TrEMBL record:
Protein name: AraC family transcriptional regulator
Domain of life according to the entry: Bacteria
MF terms (GO), sorted A to Z: DNA-binding transcription factor activity; sequence-specific DNA binding
Organism name: Thalassospira profundimaris
SMART domains with a match to the protein in the record: AraC_E_bind, HTH_ARAC
SUPFAM superfamilies per UniProt: Homeodomain-like, Probable bacterial effector-binding domain
Keyword annotations from UniProtKB, A to Z: DNA-binding, Transcription, Transcription regulation
Domain HTH araC/xylS-type: start-end pairs: 15-113
């Protein structure tokens, strides 16, 4: 088996595992079953997965389940016990304990007091200043050339595309300390059906133009120009309220005009390495001028 064929084989097999995890969160995710899906030896495949992605399979399952649960808590009225069931927790008690350990508060309190509430509450305040307690900086951004994978569907589920992209890069030895991960969002989740949403999971690498790409990876260009940048700290699940505040409060009071084109997000640290409450994201909104 030549090197390129081997890379494609590992990429495809690990991608099947990631897709199965994301699609079956409510099921018991048996490690031997996942080994079968990967068509790898149960004895060694955990080491391969850990070596490629930098986290164990169990850590991936936990991270994706909690991310999905946090999104439901922040953005829906689904009962907490039902959220626990949909995310694969056997009972409310275990869900509450595990969620509290990662997010710093139990699910019910998170729904009422999570970081999404600060932005949501600001939307209801009359006379709030243009910046409120959050800083927005207008920046001139050069053209950005990304290696990316397309994602269709809920933006909260773009993590699967990022996992596939990370695996594609890692298998080729392209993951280094200077890699920048960027999500590009082409449609408004409040204006389109969830099935019609389109986004891209992207990576900015040094000398990325010299890298040979093949599907599912494609090249994506983010246009140069002026952008409003909001730095956000907290779980990805809470960012919908930040967007509503940025477009609904800051923009009308700023004197700026939004420019046609996608928004994008840059993820400044790694959800595999830091708690959800410590995640740092910069949200970029295109501006005229």
């Amino acid at each position: 088996m030549n090197k390129l064929h081997a890379q494609r084989s590992y990429q495809d097999r690990l991608a099947r595992v990631q897709a199965h995890i994301h699609d079956h969160l409510a099921d018991e995710l048996d490690l031997n079953k996942l080994a079968e899906i990967a068509c790898m030896s149960p004895t060694h495949w955990h080491r391969i997965y850990h070596g490629v992605f930098g986290e164990t399979v169990a850590a991936t399952v936990k991270r994706v389940r909690l991310h999905t649960a946090a999104g439901m808590l922040a953005n829906s009225a689904i009962a907490i016990e039902e959220i626990a069931k949909r995310c694969g927790y056997p009972n409310l008690q275990s869900f509450t304990r595990i969620f509290s350990d990662s997010y710093g508060m139990p699910p019910a309190r998170y729904r009422k007091e999570g970081s999404h509430r600060k932005f949501h509450d600001a939307l209801d305040e009359h006379g709030v200043s243009a910046n409120g307690p959050w800083h927005v900086e207008v920046r001139n951004v050069p053209e950005i050339s990304l290696l990316s994978i397309h994602h269709h569907g809920a933006f909260m589920e773009i993590g699967e595309a990022f996992d596939r992209l990370f695996g594609w890069l890692a298998i080729r030895g392209l993951v280094g300390p200077d890699i920048r991960l960027i999500g590009v969002y082409h449609t408004d989740p409040d204006a389109y059906r969830e099935d019609d949403l389109f986004s891209k999971a992207g990576a900015l690498l040094k000398d990325s133009d010299a890298i040979d790409v093949e599907l599912p990876v494609v090249r994506t260009t983010v246009a140069a120009g002026r952008y409003a940048c909001l730095r956000y700290k907290g779980p990805y699940a809470d960012m919908k309220s930040a967007y509503l505040w940025l477009f609904g409060k800051w923009l009308p009071q700023s004197g700026e005009e939004v420019r046609d084109g996608p928004v994008f997000e840059e993820y400044l640290n790694n959800p595999r390495e830091v708690a959800p409450t410590e995640l740092l994201t910069e949200i970029y909104m295109p501006l005229e001028g």
